[in-house]
């Protein structure tokens, strides 16, 4: 069914997360045209220092055009995550003493493993957007180590769910514990000095 807004009306169509800070995706219709607002990403923009161009901009582009990520090459798709991984490792090497003893080796191994997975996250994410991913992606999916396109499609359909884009393992627990909702409510005063408003607050 097609809906064309008349020139004397303003239509509002919530697509997901209406009333939730950082999770809303809404359509506004007027005079025969529709405008999509927010895209569910409200913390900072492309001009935000350090992370704007390398993290926020690519994320927004991929939500406007979900197949955009799948068309990138490996280096272009992984560059923002590589910066984050290098920052983690560089910060650790700069701030921590040399790894000695069991605790030190464990901590160093954890940081190395964690930053490696940060680097690989967008690769797994990219595979979920590719119609013909490499063989290693198909093998990892069968082993339930990489997220499938069907699992990841839930995030793009709902807009406010399934944020785990590497394996998908954590999505059920994150949603059950409302982790992102609580983080967004905590961060709301930091971004604008205002609290999150639900429809009942209006």
Oligomer: single chain
How would you sum up the global shape? globular
- Note the run of SSEs as H and E: EEEHHHHHHH
Task: Give the fraction of residues assigned to helices.
Answer: 40-55%
Distance between the termini: 31 Å
Number of H- or I-type helical stretches: 7
Mean pLDDT rating: 79
Task: Explain the overall architecture.
This protein is mainly α. It has 2 domains: 1-40, no CATH class; 41-192, no CATH class. Helix content is 50%, strand content 8%. It has a 3-stranded antiparallel beta sheet with strand order 1-2-3, with no helix packed on it. Strand 2 and strand 3 form a beta hairpin. The model is unreliable at 193-202 (pLDDT under 50).
Q: What can be said about this structure in brief?
A:
The chain is mainly alpha-helical. The protein has 7 helices and 3 strands. Helix 2 packs antiparallel against helix 3 (101-127).
Features:
disordered C terminus, mainly alpha, three-stranded antiparallel beta sheet, 202 residues, 2 domains
Task: Describe the protein's topology.
Layout: E1 11-16, E2 25-30, E3 33-37, H1 52-64, H2 74-95, H3 101-127, H4 135-142, H5 149-158, H6 171-176, H7 179-192
Antiparallel strand pairs: 1-2, 2-3
Helix pairs in contact: 2-3
């Amino acid at each position: 069914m097609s809906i064309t807004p008349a020139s004397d009306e303003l239509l509002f169509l919530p697509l997901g997360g209406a009333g939730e800070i950082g999770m809303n995706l809404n359509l506004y219709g007027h005079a025969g045209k529709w405008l999509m607002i927010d895209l569910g990403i409200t913390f900072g923009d492309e001009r935000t220092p350090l992370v704007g161009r390398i993290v926020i901009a690519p994320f927004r582009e991929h939500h406007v055009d979900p197949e955009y990520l799948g068309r990138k090459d490996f280096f272009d798709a992984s560059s923002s995550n590589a910066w984050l991984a290098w920052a983690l490792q560089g910060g650790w090497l700069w701030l921590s003493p040399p790894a000695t003893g069991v605790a030190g080796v464990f901590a160093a191994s954890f940081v190395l493993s964690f930053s490696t997975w940060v680097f690989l996250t967008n690769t797994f994410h990219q595979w979920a957007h590719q119609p013909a991913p490499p063989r290693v992606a198909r093998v990892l999916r069968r082993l339930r180590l990489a997220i499938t396109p069907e699992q990841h499609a839930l995030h793009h359909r709902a807009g406010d769910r399934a944020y785990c884009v590497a394996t998908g393992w954590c999505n059920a627990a994150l949603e059950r514990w409302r982790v992102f909702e609580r983080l967004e409510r905590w961060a709301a005063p930091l971004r604008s000095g205002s609290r999150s408003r639900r429809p009942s607050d209006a």
